[in-house]
Amino acid sequence: MEESKLPSVRPQVSLLDMPATEMLTEARKLAVPLADIVEKQKLYSNINGNNHVKCEGWATLGSMLGITAKEQGVSELEDGSFEAKVELVNIKNGMTIGSGLGYCGMDERNWKTKPKYARRSMAITRATSKAYKTNFSWIFALAGYDTTPAEEMDGVVNVSHGTSEEYSIGKITSMTAGLKDDAARARTLAYIQEHSTDNKKMTALYNKLKEATK
Predict the structure, then answer these.
(1) Residue 206 falls within a domain, yes or no?
(2) Are 200 and 103 part of one and the same domain?
(3) Residue 86, domain member (yes or no)
(4) How far is CA 42 from CA 87, 126, 146, 151, in A?
(5) How far apart are CA 139 and CA 121, in angstroms?
(6) What are the helix (H) ranges across the chain?
(7) Does residue 54 sit in the same domain as residue 136?
(8) Do 170 and 152 share a structural domain?
């Protein structure tokens, strides 16, 4: 996804440099367009009833914050497994703000028969997701997603769960996709972003969307 197509929600000051109250407010605003992109582009996997964001989704969050992932090194271990390190870099000033380690092993059923390049690539992918998770998992939590990256859930059996009446920013945002009128959908997304912290208004909107999208 091209960065130029992302919503213009990047804060002038890094979220991590803001006072706690202001940081939370801005993060909630960011969670709405973030969830909209993740839902429309299907940048998540549903595993055991929980939505786990893929590496592309974590990278989308990074782009919205002005942060990019930079590969620092990949090592092949004696048994053919791979270990990778990735750092997160502030695009504006080049400062490193975090890092993550990723591993893809020969002991994994889904990967032991794959070619080396595939295991190497997955190690980098997991390191990237881990770096973003370590620093920004709380933003995806606000959007209603599980904070364990999808790539770390390889081999987990997907079990169907019953529906729940609980809602989250991510769930309400995804429901807007059922609105046939583009203008109505745009107004609804703007409303969610403005009132995401108002539980009464969000509950009313959730119930309204349930009826409108049946």
Answers:
(1) yes
(2) no
(3) yes
(4) 25, 18, 15, 14
(5) 26
(6) 20-41, 55-65, 116-142, 169-175, 182-195, 199-212
(7) yes
(8) no
Residue by residue, pLDDT tens for the chain (214 residues) are 444 444 444 445 567 677 777 878 888 888 889 999 998 899 998 887 788 999 999 999 999 888 999 999 999 999 999 999 999 999 888 999 999 999 998 988 888 899 999 999 999 999 999 999 998 998 998 888 988 899 988 755 443 333 334 456 777 777 787 787 878 888 888 888 777 767 778 888 888 888 887 6
Q: Which of 111, 143, 158 is the last residue of a domain?
A: 158
| Backbone torsion region of residue 66, taken as left when φ is above 0, otherwise alpha when ψ lies between -120 and 50, otherwise beta | left
* Torsion region of 61: left, alpha or beta (phi above 0 gives left; psi -120 to 50 gives alpha): alpha
Under the phi-then-psi rule, with left for phi > 0, alpha for psi from -120 to 50, and beta for the rest, what region is 9? alpha
What 3-state class would DSSP assign to 205?
helix
| Overall number of domains in the chain | 2
Range of the domain at 127: 10-158
Closest by CA position to 68, among listed 93, 35, 42, 51: 93
| Residues, the chain | 214
Kindly report the pTM of this predicted structure: 0.69
- For residues 29 and 52, state if they share a domain: yes
Q: Are 108 and 153 in contact (CB under 8 A)?
A: no
- In a shared domain, residues 123 and 196: no
Are 110 and 196 members of one domain?
no
